[in-house]
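[Archive record]
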Amino acid sequence: MRSALERTGPIVLWIAPDAVAQLTQLAPNIRSFIGSSIFLAGPEPGIMSDKERENRLEELRQHYQLSDQEIVRRAKAKELPPEPHFVEWLVLLGRGDLV
C-alpha cells in the first residue's frame, strides 16, 4: 500500500543502513516509490568526494538558475516546493536542518 504514503510535502523514513537493504529485498514497491532519494546521515562525510559534491551543486544551480544563498533563503522562509532536488541541494550544502 505504498499509495498510503502519497501526500504533499516531504516524507522522511529514518531507518538504519542495514534496514535499507532489507527494504530493497522485502518491499520492492516501497523502494521503487522512494527511487534514488536515499541519503546516509551520519558523522562521516559520505561517499561523494568534495569535487563530486561541487559538480552536483553546480548542476543544480544551472538547472534551476538559482544560487545556494537563494535556496537557503527560500528554505528558511518555507518558500521551497517539496521537491527531492531541493532537499538534495540543502543536504549537499550541509543545511539538512532546513529540510
